[in-house]
C-alpha cells in the first residue's frame, strides 16, 4: 500500500525523502494496534480525517520544518483536486516551483485511490479518513502526468491530471492569475457590467490606437472624417425647415 514504486531507481527527476529506507509506509501505525475505522462526523456522516504520518515525509535535516509549498490533495471518483492552503487556490492540476520543497497532504473522499507520477517514480495511496503525506523537491522543469494506480470504479482509467514544474517566475504568475480567478471581489472588479457604463466609458478602451490595430496616421484620418461628418449633420439640421 502506497510508498514508492518498488522498481524505482535513483535516476529520476525528484528528490523524495523517506523516513524508513525500503519501507512503503514511512511512519507505521501505533505498534500492536490494528488500523481503526474512520470516525464519523456528527453532520453528514463524512469520515473525520485522522492525523497519522503515513507516507514519505521530510528528510532528517528538514524534520519539523514546513515545506516551501503545501498542497492538500483530494482523490475522488474520478478526479484529483488540489488546494493551496496559503493562497486559497483550488485547481485541477498541480503546479510546483522548481528547486523548492513540496509537501502533499493527501486524502480520499470516497474509496482508496493511488496518487502516481510514473515518470518520477512517486506513488502514494490516498485513504478515506486518513492523511497520507508525500514530500519531495522537483529539480527538472516539465509537465508530468498524474494517474490513479488503484482500481476505484468504472471510470478509473480517466482519473488523470498533471503536475507542472514551473520556473519560480512562471509559478508566481500562475498563482497571481489563479488568485484573480478564485477571488469573488477581484472578479467583480475585473468583470465590470457594461450596462452600468456611459457611452464614453464603454468606448474609451477602443479609442486607443494599439487596441484598434491601426497606426497614428490612419487614426488621424478617421478622426477628421468623423468631424467632417458631424459638421455635415449640423449643416443639414440648420438648413432644414420644420
UniProtKB/TrEMBL annotation:
Keywords: Copper, Electron transport, Membrane, Metal-binding, Oxidoreductase, Transport. InterPro entries: CcO_II, CcO_II-like_C, Copper_CuA, Cupredoxin. Pfam families: COX2 (PF00116). GO terms for cellular component: membrane. GO terms for biological process: ATP synthesis coupled electron transport. The keyword Membrane applies. PROSITE patterns: COX2, COX2_CUA. It is found in: Membrane. It comes from the Bacteria. Residues 66-177 form the Cytochrome oxidase subunit II copper A binding domain. It catalyses: 4 Fe(II)-[cytochrome c] + O2 + 8 H(+)(in) = 4 Fe(III)-[cytochrome c] + 2 H2O + 4 H(+)(out). The keyword Nuclease does not apply. Coiled coil: none annotated. GO terms for molecular function: copper ion binding; cytochrome-c oxidase activity; oxidoreductase activity. Subunits I and II form the functional core of the enzyme complex. Electrons originating in cytochrome c are transferred via heme a and Cu(A) to the binuclear center formed by heme a3 and Cu(B). Belongs to the cytochrome c oxidase subunit 2 family. This is Cytochrome aa3 subunit 2. It comes from Planktothrix rubescens CCAP 1459/22. The lineage of its organism: Bacteria, Bacillati, Cyanobacteriota, Cyanophyceae, Oscillatoriophycideae.
